[in-house]
Design brief:
- It is a single chain.
- This protein is of the alpha/beta class.
- It has 13 helices and eight strands.
- An eight-stranded mixed β-sheet has the order 1-2-4-3-5-6-7-8.
- It is globular, with a radius of gyration of 22 Å.
- The protein starts with 21 loop residues before the first strand and ends with a strand.
Length: 410
């Protein structure tokens, strides 16, 4: 949901979607690739499928996992189908600090200092080099694939380690660090306007909630929060939660479904009762007010199934992507601004941690990396709000670079 759930999963898989011969392995990678005096390693989980591999000439494909516990690649995914077509060996590598690939004893700030995209890219480079040696073919061709944040890793990797890769595929790769990411909500607005009735209904709901929270009497605020079972949220966290009920559904291509459900509430004239129904819709799509206290993100003990503290650390320390409101966009309160996100980061980590957009883009490279990156395919969906942090200009396509925007209707 919203900014705090950036992970692009591969989706629920039935038994027939699961590869039959998946091998699970653990790779000893360095905890700190940039301190040559440190010899500490950690166990990084990976998967591989050899069903289609032709060892002499077949390439290797690496699916880069992002900000969540790693998953087995399903048979109805692009990397799997590509492995079939190219007679490739298919690998999938879990990201450090997610799932069981834990380089440290806990998620304290000292440990999380080893969680960043620079270390993650070095993990990938070390993995590719080691597996190339193990396969005893020095000129083995590698293809890397990633989506979402992992799509950004693909783009950044090709900027720094392109000598290791033959071709790269970045889907919805958010390679541009943007702190004040109002463009996210602008795209949500564009998507919603495809259904004017839904857009009006959502705008009215958000306007009502914003008015009650910012100008209403205490009794009115208490009533609204109580009806939505969110009495424990402060005003700004409540506004963030309120908007995220529909935002996540639009991001993940469920606009038509969520709009149908919101339009069905149209017969209810009482905005308090309509908001109560709206909260029930939130429960049905997995958006809970409990997730907006940010208390879970304060926990420092390792939970293999959790990814929220780690991802918030990455956004608060270096990446940004803070979804903010704006005076020209009625779909999220303008009070959800950088001051709000700075206070969230401070609450979670107990100190002032906030990224520098200029520094991150200067060190890693933003959309300008297309000036020197080649052998890479950048793909974005036309309805995807994250496209505005990626490579969008199809005119940049040349013999060594392909930029595509996929037209969508949901």
């Amino acid at each position: 949901y919203g900014m705090r759930h950036r992970h692009m999963t591969l989706g629920e898989k039935s038994e027939e979607d699961m590869p039959k011969n998946v091998v699970v392995g653990y790779f000893n990678n360095r905890v700190d690739h940039f301190n040559l005096s440190s010899t500490k390693t950690y166990s990084q989980k990976y998967w591989h499928v050899d069903d289609f591999w032709e060892p002499q000439e077949g390439p290797a494909i690496l699916y880069i996992q992002g900000e969540g516990p790693g998953e087995i690649i399903g048979t109805r995914t692009m990397p799997f189908e590509l492995a079939q077509q190219l007679h490739a060996r298919l690998f999938s590598l879990e990201h450090r600090f997610y799932g069981v690939s834990q380089p440290c004893k806990d998620w304290s700030l000292d440990c999380l200092s080893f969680l960043n995209h620079h270390q993650a890219m070095a993990d990938i480079a070390n993995f590719i080099e080691t597996k190339t040696d193990e396969m005893e073919k020095p000129d083995r061709k590698w293809i890397i694939v990633g989506g979402s944040y992992a799509g950004a890793l693909v783009g950044w990797f090709m900027s720094k380690y392109s000598h290791l890769v033959e071709v790269a595929y970045s889907s919805s790769g958010v390679i541009n660090s943007i702190l004040d990411f109002q463009l996210y909500m602008r795209q949500i607005s564009i998507d919603l306007k495809k259904d004017p009735i839904c857009y009006t209904a959502v705008t009215d709901l958000n306007a009502f909630a914003t008015y009650i929270i910012t100008q209403g009497e205490d009794e009115e605020k208490d009533k609204l929060k109580a009806l939505m079972k969110a009495s424990f949220l402060n005003d700004l966290d409540f506004l963030m939660y309120f908007t995220d009920i529909y935002v996540g559904e639009i991001q993940y291509s469920n606009r038509k479904t969520v709009c149908q459900n919101i339009i069905k509430m149209g017969g209810e004239k009482d905005m308090y009762k309509k908001s109560e129904l709206y909260a029930k819709l939130g429960v049905s799509v997995g958006v809970s007010p409990e997730d907006y206290t940010y208390n879970k993100e304060r926990e420092t003990h390792i939970d293999f199934a959790s990814s929220s503290r780690q991802w918030m650390y990455q956004t608060c320390s270096s990446l940004g992507y803070f979804q903010t409101g704006g005076v020209n966009n009625p779909l999220r309160s303008s009070l959800i601004n950088l001051d709000y996100w700075q206070s969230v980061c401070r609450y979670i980590f107990g100190k002032n941690i906030f990224p520098s957009e200029q520094y991150t883009n200067g060190i890693t490279g933003d959309v300008r990396i297309v000036q020197w990156v080649n052998k890479t395919i950048f793909v974005n969906g036309g309805d995807d709000p994250w496209q505005w942090a990626g490579v969008r200009d199809e005119k940049l396509t040349n013999d060594d670079l392909l930029v595509m925007i996929i037209k969508c209707d949901d």
